[in-house]
Amino acid sequence: MFYEPAAPKIISVLIFWSFFILIMGFSLITMLSDKYRWYLRYARVYSRTYKRR
C-alpha cells in the first residue's frame, strides 16, 4: 500500500469523493422531499381552513 505511483492514489481519491458526493446528494434529496411533504400537508390544511371561512 506504500508504493508511490500517482494513478492509484488519484483513483482512490476519486472513488472517495464520488461516494461523499453521492451520500451528500442523497441526504439533501431526502431532506428536501421531507420538507416538500411537510409543506404540502401544511398547504392542504391551510386551504381547508381557508375554505371553511
SSE blueprint and pairings:
Blueprint: H1 6-52
Write structural notes for this entry.
The chain crosses the membrane at residues 6-32. Keywords: Membrane, Transmembrane, Transmembrane helix. The radius of gyration is 23 Å and the shape is rod-shaped. The chain has 53 residues and is mainly α. It is 89% helix and 0% strand. The model has no long low-confidence stretch (mean pLDDT 84).
Features:
53 residues, 1 helix, mainly alpha
What's the helical proportion of residues?
Answer: over 70%
Distance between the termini: 72 Å
- Tally the helices: 1
Q: Structural class of the secondary structure composition?
A: mainly alpha
Name the poorly predicted regions: none
How much of the sequence lies in strands comes to: under 5%
Largest sheet: none
Question: What is the strand tally?
Answer: 0
Order of helices and strands: H
Oligomer: single chain
Give me the Rg, rounded.
Answer: 23 Å
Please tell me the overall pLDDT.
84
Shape field: rod-shaped
Summary?
With 53 residues, the chain is mostly helical. The chain is built from one helix and no strands. It is rod-shaped and about 75 Å long.
